[in-house]
Amino acid sequence: MKFTPGILRAAYDFLVTTPPFRRWNLPPGEDVDFKVSKDLVCIGTYQTRDDHTITLSAARVCHTATLIVTMAHEMVHLAQVEDGSVTRTMHNAAFRRMAKVVCRHHGFDPLEF
C-alpha cells in the first residue's frame, strides 16, 4: 500500500478517538503536519519546533498494522511534549509508562513498540 500524508492523518484521527489517547488532549489531526519519507533506517519520527510533525517512512511501513503501531508510538512522543514529560532521553520512564498503557489498550506487543 502506498501511504500519503492524508492516510497518516486518518490513522492519527482514528487513534486519537481511542483510549488512552482520547484522555491525553492531543491536538486535532489538522494541527499536525504529516509527512512520508523514504528513509531506509528510521521507521517513524516525531518532531516539534513551532509545530507538531509526524513522519513515517514509506520504505519501512508497508502494512496497515505497521502504520497504526508506528503512528501510536509517535503519538506517545507528541503526548510527552504536550504534558511536559519529555526529556533528553527519547524513551524515558514516562514514555515507557505511557507506551505500556497504549499497548494494553490496543493489543500491541510492548517489546516491539
In short:
This protein is of the alpha+beta class and 113 residues long.
Q: Can you describe what's shown?
A:
- With 113 residues, the protein is α+β, with helices and mostly antiparallel strands.
- It has a single domain, classed as Zincin-like.
- The chain contains three helices and three strands; from the N terminus they run H-E-E-E-H-H.
- The chain has a three-stranded mixed β-sheet with strand order 1-3-2, with helices on one face.
- The longest helix has 20 residues, at 64-83.
- The mean pLDDT is 96.
List keywords for this structure.
113 residues; globular; 3 helices; single chain; alpha+beta; Zincin-like; 3-stranded mixed sheet
Compile the SSE list and pairings.
Layout: H1 5-15, E1 32-37, E2 44-48, E3 52-57, H2 64-83, H3 93-106
Parallel strand pairs: 1-3
Antiparallel strand pairs: 2-3
Helix pairs in contact: 1-2, 2-3
